[in-house]
């Protein structure tokens, strides 16, 4: 074997490659873990009205660990996502020492019962706000449907200066709307958009001319509607 120069040359080359690989690995490990490559700058991007600079600074100081190379991007993203008003955070490195964080903030559209808020994407989130918002009450998982319905109702009712203050969806998918003028609007299960448009037409021409306070309007009738007026008293029946 020791007289086989070709074999010895191949063995020497193999040992040389192995040594070179170990050196490169050690060098790479040092480069990525050495404290001479710290993250020196954190650049925050995004339109933020609810997330404060103090909150972001706290996360940066207490949650982010590692060097420019070893910092865990997914963990960093999750750390910023803990803030109540942060919907999403995209994180990327920018050579040589900067971390760029693009923050997408929740935009509150409505309250979800007493349990939280719903954003413009129909997603539940838990945060505090003193905004005056409509309230959605419905089965779990119906958030996106209710947000879509809220948008359609707002658009149609705006024609007569009304707006939904509370929107209800039953387990049987029947809709009710409390309007900002105190009227409860019953829309039922089918043809909800058509019934809303019919209510708007009748509000313009008939309902506002009634001399009594309107408590509720039921649009579930195929060719008409019913009105509940607590102050109305039917005239006494004439005796024959």
From TrEMBL:
Family assignment from sequence similarity: Belongs to the FtsQ/DivIB family. FtsQ subfamily.
Keyword check for Metal-binding: no
Cellular component GO terms held in the UniProt record: cell division site; plasma membrane
Membrane topology annotation: Single-pass type II membrane protein
Major localisation: membrane
UniProt cross-references to HAMAP family, sorted A to Z: FtsQ_subfam
Keywords: Cell cycle, Cell division, Cell inner membrane, Cell membrane, Membrane, Transmembrane, Transmembrane helix
Subcellular location: Cell inner membrane; Membrane
Membrane-traversing stretches: 12-31
Pfam families associated with the record: FtsQ_DivIB_C (PF03799), POTRA_1 (PF08478)
BP-aspect Gene Ontology terms: cell septum assembly; FtsZ-dependent cytokinesis
Domain of life: Bacteria
SUBUNIT field: Part of a complex composed of FtsB, FtsL and FtsQ.
UniProt-listed Gene3D superfamilies: Cell division protein FtsQ/DivIB, membrane protein fhac
Domain POTRA: start-end pairs: 37-106
Biological role stated in the UniProt entry: Essential cell division protein. May link together the upstream cell division proteins, which are predominantly cytoplasmic, with the downstream cell division proteins, which are predominantly periplasmic. May control correct divisome assembly.
Signal peptide, first to last residue: none
The protein's name in its UniProt record: Cell division protein FtsQ
């Amino acid at each position: 074997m020791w007289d086989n120069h070709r074999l010895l040359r191949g063995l020497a080359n193999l040992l040389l490659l192995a040594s070179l690989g170990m050196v490169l690995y050690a060098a790479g490990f040092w480069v990525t873990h050495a404290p001479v490559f710290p993250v020196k700058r954190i650049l925050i991007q995004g339109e933020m009205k609810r997330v404060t600079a103090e909150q972001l600074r706290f996360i940066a100081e207490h949650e982010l660990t590692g060097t420019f190379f070893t910092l865990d991007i997914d963990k960093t993203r999750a750390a910023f996502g803990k803030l109540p008003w942060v919907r999403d955070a995209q994180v990327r490195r920018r050579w040589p020492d900067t971390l760029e964080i693009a923050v997408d903030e929740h935009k509150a559209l409505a309250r979800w019962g007493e349990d939280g808020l719903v954003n413009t994407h129909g997603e539940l989130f838990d945060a505090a706000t003193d905004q005056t918002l409509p309230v959605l009450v419905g089965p779990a998982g119906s958030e996106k449907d209710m947000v879509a319905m809220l948008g359609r109702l707002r658009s149609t009712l705006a024609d007569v200066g009304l707006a939904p203050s509370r929107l209800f969806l039953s387990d049987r998918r029947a809709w009710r709307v409390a309007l900002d003028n105190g009227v409860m609007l019953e829309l039922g299960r089918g043809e909800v958009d058509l019934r809303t448009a019919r209510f708007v037409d009748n509000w313009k021409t008939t309902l506002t001319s009634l001399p009594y306070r309107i408590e509720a309007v039921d649009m579930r009738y195929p060719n008409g509607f019913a009105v509940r007026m607590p102050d109305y008293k039917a005239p006494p029946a004439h005796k024959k």
